[in-house]
Design goal:
- The chain is α/β, with parallel strands linked by helices and 508 residues long.
- The chain folds into three domains: 191 residues, Rossmann fold (3-Layer(aba) Sandwich); 119 residues, Cytidine Deaminase, domain 2 (3-Layer(aba) Sandwich), CATH 3.40.140; 124 residues, AICAR transformylase, duplication domain (Cytidine Deaminase, domain 2, 3-Layer(aba) Sandwich), CATH 3.40.140.
- Helix content is 37%, strand content 19%.
- The protein contains 18 helices and 23 strands.
- Strands 10-15-14-13-11-12 form a six-stranded mixed beta sheet.
- The chain is elongated, with a radius of gyration of 29 Å.
């Protein structure tokens, strides 16, 4: 293996977080540091000696910073092989060798999530940085490349453990990481520019490929592609499995509907919510969500939109669960939860919802816009003589969200912002309703006074008839059946309010 000692480094990063210990270690090792713009000012602010790139190129940063490092004296120093012919050319043109390149790209994906201003988005397409990464990665035989903050810890370890000496294996590994970053970055830009009929430019992302213990079953291999750490901070527990990730995604999609609202808790099993509740406190919302189906909750995925306090943690800790997700945890609560070493604890950074969904099937890929529609009271059309009360509207909207995140065909029964019964994945909507009623009663709930939500229209009045017999007092559904009036007529005859949303929420 060819070992090389780092003698010079070019540092050009957008985010300076985590850079200080690396810069100080390089300075301590006597490495000559080249830099530009904000990075240069940051390093000089640390008292570290820096050579300006413009002093090497004899050109300042121009065109509002669009051109800083794009120059033969920079790229020649990176791309030159440490062989006689290339070394002679470096001497001829007075080009310094560059042994290490550290880059953190402009945050393109973050920018498109935060703004629709095209001029601002375009300026976050990194040209110099991505060119530096690709050049250094191409010359991995002689150059070390660090393509993002995610690899800072690896570089710092190399500097501390090996005194700035790297092996060919080290450099080739970082080159692979670099081309992963490059591919992912280019794909994000491609998807931004893709026309609506281009299928979102679908392609499996290369960045952060993670081999899982196995796939859906032990005889299947499984992998995850993507920077999962941008969504979660893992605070404890075993490694995430394929099935964990599928359930976690379903949990995040559901709880994103309640982001910023009163304390809400949900319990999911096999991507379906078996308990959802909203209350004044996180403890109360947990107890209500668990009560909906304490049997299915065993080994489930738990998620809340609120910081978990110690009282809630003590109650949650009584249950065996796979994953617990929350925006934050009180220190004492986290300390208690971390005692169960195998239970996965995730601090969610953002309730990220991708704008498109992909599914491989047959010899191709299905692409669709994600179902991001969330109905409000203004979206409801009352189609019956009887008008729903404000409390019923509140529960109808809550039930509608629950039904949206259950597998079709589905019915959700809600009472006082608590999912008390659900039927899902049924081939008949009548079966889904009967399952919801039976489940609610089996756990001691009185269905009288509840409201009912359906993910799709009622082709016949049988569901509202069965719902009425069970004590359902109001109904929400998308409408659209040629026989809508039959169900409306039954509701009118029995003083049962019905509202129509006009939006179907199938989930196959």
């Amino acid at each position: 293996m060819k070992d090389i000692k780092i003698k010079s480094a070019l540092i050009s990063v957008f985010s300076k977080e985590g850079l200080e210990p690396i810069a100080r270690k390089l300075d301590q090792l006597g490495v000559k540091i080249l830099s530009t713009g904000g990075t240069q000012q940051f390093l000089e602010g640390l008292g570290i000696s820096v050579t300006k790139v413009e002093d090497i190129t004899s050109y300042p940063s121009i065109l509002d910073g669009r051109v800083k490092t794009l120059h033969p004296k920079v790229f020649g120093g990176i791309l030159a092989r440490r062989e006689e012919d290339h070394q002679e050319q470096l001497k001829t043109y007075d080009i310094p060798e560059i042994d290490l390149v550290i880059v953190d790209l402009y945050p393109f994906e973050k920018t498109i999530r935060e703004t629709s201003d095209e001029s601002e988005i375009i300026e976050k397409i990194d040209i110099g940085g991505i060119s530096l990464i690709r050049a250094a990665a191409k010359n991995f035989n002689d150059v070390v490349v660090v393509p993002s903050q995610k690899e800072y810890s690896l570089l710092l370890q190399l500097l501390e453990d090996k005194g700035g000496v790297t092996s060919l294996e080290d450099r080739k590994h970082l080159a692979w990481k670099s081309f992963c970053v490059s591919a992912d970055y280019d794909q994000a830009i491609q998807q931004y520019f893709a026309p609506a009929d281009a299928g979102g430019g679908y392609e499996v992302k290369a960045e952060g490929k993670q081999e899982l213990r196995y796939g859906e079953n032990p005889h299947q291999k499984g992998y995850f592609y993507g920077p999962l750490e941008e969504v979660f901070e893992k605070l404890g527990g075993k490694e995430l499995s394929y099935n964990n990730l599928v359930d976690i995604d379903a949990a995040v999609q559901l709880m994103s509907e309640f982001e910023g609202e009163a304390p809400t808790f949900a319990v999911l099993k096999h991507t379906n919510a078996c308990g959802v509740a909203q209350a004044e406190t996180v403890l109360e919302s947990w107890l209500k969500s668990l009560a909906a189906d304490p049997v299915s909750a065993f080994g489930g995925i738990l998620i809340t939109n609120t910081k978990v306090d110690l009282a809630t943690a003590e109650e949650v800790n009584k249950l065996f669960y796979e994953v617990l997700i929350a925006p934050d945890f009180e220190p004492a609560a986290l300390e208690l939860l971390q005692k169960k070493k195998k239970r996965i604890i995730l601090r969610i950074r953002e309730f990220y919802r991708a704008p498109q969904q992909f599914k491989s099937l047959l010899n191709g890929v299905l692409v669709q816009d994600a179902d991001l529609t969330k109905e409000t009271s203004e979206d409801l059309t009352v189609v019956t003589t009887a008008q729903p009360t404000q409390d019923q509207i509140r529960d109808l909207l809550f039930a509608n969200i629950c039904a949206k995140h259950l597998k079709s065909n589905t019915i959700a029964l809600v009472k006082d912002q608590q999912l008390i019964g659900m039927g899902c994945g049924q081939t008949s909507r009548v079966d889904a309703l009967r399952q919801a009623v039976d489940k609610a009663r089996s756990f001691g709930f009185d269905t009288t006074g509840s409201v009912m939500a359906s993910d799709a229209f009622f082709p016949f009045p049988d569901c509202v008839e069965i719902g009425y017999e069970a004590g359902v007092k109001a109904v929400i559904q998308p409408g659209g059946s040629i026989k809508d009036q039959d169900s409306i007529d039954f509701c009118n005859a029995h003083d049962m309010p019905m509202v129509i949303t006009g939006i179907r929420h199938f989930k196959h």
